[in-house]
Hints:
Elements: H1 12-15, E1 19-23, H2 40-54, E2 58-62, H3 81-88, E3 93-94, H4 101-109, E4 115-117, H5 125-129, H6 132-139, E5 144-147, H7 158-162, E6 170-172, H8 174-188, E7 194-198, H9 207-214, E8 219-222, H10 227-233, E9 237-238, H11 248-261, E10 264-266, E11 270-274, E12 283-287, E13 290-291, E14 296-300, H12 302-312, E15 317-321, H13 334-347, E16 352-355, H14 359-366, E17 375-376, H15 381-387, H16 393-396
Parallel strand pairs: 1-2, 1-5, 2-4, 3-4, 5-6, 7-8, 7-15, 8-10, 9-13, 15-16, 16-17
Antiparallel strand pairs: 11-12, 11-14
Amino acid sequence: MAAKKSVGVLKEAELKGKRVFVRVDLNVPLDDNLKITDDTRVRAAVPTIKYLMGHGARVILASHLGRPKGVTPKYSLKPLVPRLSELLGVEVKMANDCIGVEVEKLVAEIPEGGVLLLENVRFYKEEEKNDPEFAKKLAALADVYVNDAFGTAHRAHASTEGVAKYLKPSVAGFLMQKELDYLVGAVTKPKRPFAAIVGGSKVSTKIGVMESLLAKVDLLFLGGGMIFTFYKAQGHSVGSSLVEEDKLELATSLLEKAKSRGVKILLPTDVVIADKFAADANSKVVPASAIPDGWMGLDIGPDSIKTFSEALDATQTIIWNGPMGVFEFDKFAVGTEAVAKKLAELSGKGVTTIIGGGDSVAAVEKVGLADKMSHISTGGGASLELLEGKTLPGVLALDDA
């Protein structure tokens, strides 16, 4: 993917008084009282919005929330207005729709440096269909397009891809830029030794990432539920641990591919097993090759943690995607938390540490180490696809630098 134009190259002359349509990712979790439970994505959107406000732009924010079928009040973006206003230091106005006469009137009233939030773009099914007429209506509201919604950049939707066809310039926001710099940069020009830690419950969801990373990394660490498919493929007994029977041959071929490429694969040598899938299960540590019947592996063991930590000490770049165990249960979060702490420590020594989206982000936040990492990706699916070497439609649509 060619480097893209960044919002930072647009100066006062190109922004003052201009209507700027900013696609942000405000898809945050809300509780039953519609209170935000995690405002990470809202905070991540602030630098781009403040830059535009500071240059006298009239800012129009667009986002989706959840997966509504038509207009669904519980997926309204209204609950985000107080937090956005607080973070931006201005009173953010809210529209009851994202297109139409009412919205056009509100857009005309935005003062320079002011902000208007549009209602959930996914209230229209045309958004996800990337309908050109709908994209034209969104584009008609503005003069300039900024895409800062990395989390949906892997989707060709009207507000992430369609509008870019009708607005020039179309540029990447600061968050989008940072994601691309780290995720694309790390994979194409890493400081070596370069390691990837891949976890999660299933091999099937991580095949693309593992195959893509095998061509680039020096070391590959495996954890999470997917390891049992690898163990079984090697002839070990795995008790009642999670196994994808139809992926055994694939596991074997991935190990062979690594060998032929000179990539060192580290599989956990010991595991924490449990007698049931529950927070209060009885547990014990056993060698990876000796899981008894009726027991399931739910975390990597102390010996593996030690081996992994020592091997990571020698690396310069690390990408982590997917937890080492069932970290939702404190008893089986030890491996995941140990990896998070190790990465935080290495970050402090100048190692580039990238948390590549999904559950690993939640794990790092749970341990309170998010601010210690070089980069935490805000996109789940988007980061995975980028690490798999795919191009993202929401990025391709932007102007080249």
